[in-house]
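User: Predict the complex.
Assistant: Input components as received:
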Amino acid sequence: MGNAQVSTPFFTEDHNAFRAVLRDFVQKEITPHAHEWDEAGEFPRELYKKAGALELFGDGFSAEYGGHGQRDALMRMVIMEELSRSGSGGVVAGMLSNYIGLPMVEKYGTDAIKAQVLPPCMAGEHIAALAITEPGGGSDVARLTTKAVRDGDHYVVNGSKTFITSGMRADWFTTAVRTGGDGPSGISMLVIPGDVDGLSRTKLDKMGWLASDTATLYFDDARVPVGNLLGEENAGFNYIVNNFNPERIDLATQSVTFARVCYEEALAWARERHTFGKRLADHQVIRHKLVEMDRRINACTAWLELLSWRLNQGDDPVVEISEAKVDATLTFEFCAREAAQILGGASYLRGSVVERLYREVRVQAIGGGSEEIMRDLASRQLGF
Amino acid sequence: MKVAVCVKQIPDPADPGALDPETRTLKRDVKLILDESDSYGVEMALQLVDAAGGGEVVLVSMAPNNERSGLSTALAMGAASATLVSDPALVGTDALTTAKILGKIISDQEPDLVIAGSESSDGYTGTVPEQIAGVLGWPSVTAAKAVAIDGSAMKVERQTDAGYDEVECSLPAVISVTAGVVEPRYPSFKGIMAAKSKPVVQMTVADLGMTAAEVGWAGSGQEVVDVTVAPVREAGEKIEDDGEAHLKIIEFLESVKAI
C-alpha cells in the first residue's frame, strides 16, 4: 500500500510527512484501544480533540475556519489509509462523519453558519453528521419524507432519519428535508443543531462498527433558523449527489486498507504458526491465498491512487469511483474471508482484528451506496 | 524567551541498523529520524516559551550527512529554526567533541536556556548535556521533570529515585529531560507545511572555525575497541495453572526479591 517508505508518482513529501504523523497517532492513540472501545460501544470524545489538534478533519475546508485551505484527494487518501490501519471501522466511521457532514456546509453555507459550525468541528470540539437516510427508504433519496415547513424565521422539521453515523453524539446534523413538492426538486439541506428542541435520538445496535454511535433521529416540531439553510431552497438533491462521490472513494480506500490489515494479520500468523511440521506459510495452499489477497489489494490501491490524482486534476470520474467502491469492498470481503481461513479458530475469537473486520465487511459494502446501487449508477452513466 | 533544544537524528529504531565492523559503531548512512527522546525536550521548550508569553525555540543538531527529516519533524511541532552542523569529517565524533561543537552553535544563538534529552536512543552515552554545560560554563540540571522560569532564574523539579529535588539556578543554563516528562504534541498539517519554509542553517566544521583533525575519529579521545552481540533473550518459564499457579508466581517474585 502507499506508505512513507514506498514512493509512487502520486504522493509527495507533504503526503508522506503527514502520513508519518498519522501513523504514529493511530498506533499510539487508537490501535491499542480498538477492542476496548468496540466492547464499550463508543470511543472517547477526547479523540476528536486530539485529531483536531493535528488537523485531521481539515481537507477541503477553508483555512479561515480551521481547515487545510485546499482539497487534496491524495491527502484524503492518506488520512483514510492511516486511520483504517487501526483495523477499527467503528472508530474510522465515527471520526470521519465530519467528512460527510461538513462539505455541504463549507460549500453552500452562509458565512455566519460556516463560522458557527466549522471551527469547532475542525478543532474536534464538535461533531458533525450527515442525516439523509430515512426508515421508509434508503438509496432512493428523491422520495424522502422528512418535512421542513417555513414558519417566520424558522423551518419546522418533522420526520425521522436512520442509520446516522455519530447520530447519538453529533452537535450538528446536515439534514435532507422536503421543503417543496414530490421528487428530487423538493429537497433542501438544513444544518440542524444537536440540541434543538424536538430532536430525540435512539441508539442502534449493529453487527459491526461497534465503536461508532449510530442512531435513528426523530424530529418533532423542531424549529431550525432559516439561516441554517444550505444554498438554495429545493436545490438539495444535487448537493447530496455531489457529496456522495468523495464519500464513496473514502469508503473504498478504507475498505482496501482494511483488506490490507487482514492480509498483514494473516501473513504474520502464517509465518508464526506451525502445522504438520512446517510453518503455515510453507504450505502452498496458504501461500496462494496470501498472494491472491495481495494481488487484489495492490490492483485496487493503484486504481484508487489514480482516481484520487484525477480528482485533483479536476476530473469527475463518477463511473470509476462507483466501480472502484465495488472492487474495494469485494476485495475486503475476500481478504476478510481468506484471513479468517488462515487464522482458523483465532479469527473467531472476540478481540481478534480479523474477527472485527469480518463483521465490518457488510457495512462497507452497503454504506454510501451498496454494491448493487454502485453498479446500477455506473451502468446508467455508461449509457449501455 | 529563547530556548535552544539539542536534537539528534538517528536511524529509525523500528528498523534497527547494523554495526560497522571496522569502526564498531552504528551505521548512520541510512535515513535518519528525530530521536523520540528529543521530542520531549522540544515539547518542554515550546511550553516554556508559551508560558513566557513569547519567544522562540531553536534547534541545534549535528549529523555526518545532510539529513534534515528529523529536524523537519521538530520544526513542524513548532520550533522556529534549526542549525545543523553537517560534515563528512564528523563521522566518529565522540561525546565530548559533540558537546564542543553544539556548544559553539549554542553560544552564537545566545539562548536563555538549553534543553537536551538525557541520552540519545542510539549512542546512549548520556553525557552530552552536562558536557555542553561544562563547555559553556553554565549551570547544569539533569532529569528535569518540571521547569518554571522567573526572570533570570529557574526552578527545576529534578527527578530522583525517592521523589524529586527542587533545584534553583541562574540562566542561561542547560537542563536534560527524560522521556515522559511531557506529552509531545503531534505535528499538525499546517505545522508540516510551515516547516518547509523555516530556516535551516547548515554549517561545516570549517564554518565553526574548527579543523577536521579536531573532530571525527581524528579528534576523538575515545575508541570503541570491542563490541559483543547481546545474548538472544531466552524463552520464559511457562507455568500451567493447576490451581496452584499463583503460589509459583509468588515464589518466583520472592526469588528475584520483587516482593
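The mean pLDDT of chain B is 90.
Let me know if you want any component modeled separately.
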